Protein: Ribonuclease D
Organism: Actinomadura parmotrematis
Amino acid sequence: MAVSATEPEGPPPVPLLEPAEGVPPVVETLDGLAATVAAFAAGEGPVAVDAERASGYRYGQRAYLIQLRRAGAGTALIDPIALPDLAPLNAALADAEWVLHAANQDLPCLAEVGMVPGALFDTELAGRLLGYPRVGLGSIVETVLGYTLEKGHSAADWSTRPLPEDWLRYAALDVELLVELRDALRERLAAAGKLGWALEEYAAILATPPKPPRTDPWRRTSGIHRVRNRRALAIVREVWEARDRIARERDLSPGRVLQDTAIVELALHPPKTQAELQALHAMRGRGARRHSSAWLRAVTRARTLPDRALPEANLPGDGPPPPHRWAERDPAAAARLTAARAVVAALAEEHALPAENLLQPDSVRRLAWSPPAEASAAAIGGALRALGARPWQVGLVAAPLAAAFAEPDAAPADPDA
């Protein structure tokens, strides 16, 4: 049985306080970009890439600083606001493997400025496959390389200009050891027989198209479960959309314009006048009061909508119902789900990785609810591939799931039941 990775024993970690070549100046001119492109084109080996956003401060998830490091080129800090088209840099790195930590977080904002990798190594995902209990960049650098990174500015407002020197130092240090970390993790993946798994995961990330816009994104308002009727849901929708327009126009995070708790309170206690609106507890903040007229207009629109224009209480889903309803609606499916979860949990423990990295919970539910007609490894494997499972996952789980589906009552107990 594989053993989960643990914290290393030995000397205490060494604080990494300064980049080896110092903090480089921010690249913010076309001439500076041209020099950076030439340097990185002449560099060697993988390139470390990171991006800093202004989540919680600005609208959207655009990058406000991009960091790169490559052997022979050193470290570059690039301002993508001043230089919104980095296609020339992308072309210079076309043949390089890009090393990112939690790539899915940064790839969308990098694509917005024309940077799309052709090959990828994700150090966070490598840590998950190796079974590390903590997979943040600082934790993995400390565990694998024996250094500690200062993480005090991870939630800073990176739209600030000029960026403070200590923020730039932090940003440069985030890519300082990323390639060395990649090398060490690749060796450990190979030793554990998991390098092939990682390469399949990285290829899947690169092949995944951008996510389409969400249907009815207002339904993700925090606390919306408290809203019980369609008229109140219409208030949530109208206020959310008003907030979104204001946030986009002012380039502010929507939560800085009006918090979700205020939207829900407006839906639960809809005001008819400015005085009633401003008496609500959630409306006491400066941001909420600044646009109080917009919120009252939105509430009024929702109150006067005809019934046919009200949102449905629930959107029809394309997947199975919530698992807590399965025992009543389809006892056989409920038994399959219990058996499948137990199989996945046992295999994940055996191979020392999180169960969700072995097989996505949504795939487990969909397979258990609508299994193939034949409970064979080949049929289960085909169904899993259709759900997006990679070959290494299918190879591990298809046969055990087929056996469990053939006799679900004989499967081990589901630890999450």
About this structure: The chain has a mean pLDDT of 93.
